[in-house]
Amino acid sequence: MPARPLASETLQLIAAVQNALAERLGAQATVEERPLFGCHAFMVDGKLCLAVKGEDLLVRLPPAQHAAVAEQPGVRALDPRGGMPGYFWIEPAGYATRVQWQHWVDTALAYNPQAKATPRRRKERAA
Question: Out of the domains of life, which is the source (predicted)?
C-alpha cells in the first residue's frame, strides 16, 4: 500500500527543520533524514535529535531536565508514563514564535553531542 501524502503543514515543518539544521550546522555535522516510528526523523551524527509528526515537533533534550520541561505549555512527554525521559512533543503553540522555535532547535542541538546513540540492530542472516 502506498504511503499517504503528507499534509502541507507537515511539509512546511519538515522544511523549517531542514533550514534550521542547515543554518546552524552547515557542513560540520552529518544529518540523516529517515522515517522512524511514523515520524520524519532528523538524525544528527547518528543520534535522534528532532522529528516531525503532523504539526508536532519532537525534540530530544537532557533527561535530567525532564520534569521542568514537561511543565511548559504546549509540551507533552513522548511517553506519558515516563519511559523515555528527555523526549518531548512540542505542539504548534509551543513553537509559534521565532524565540520559541529557536529555543527548541538550539536546545536539542546543544544536547545532541552528549546524547547516547542507540546501537543499530543487526539484521539476522537467513541460514
Answer: Bacteria
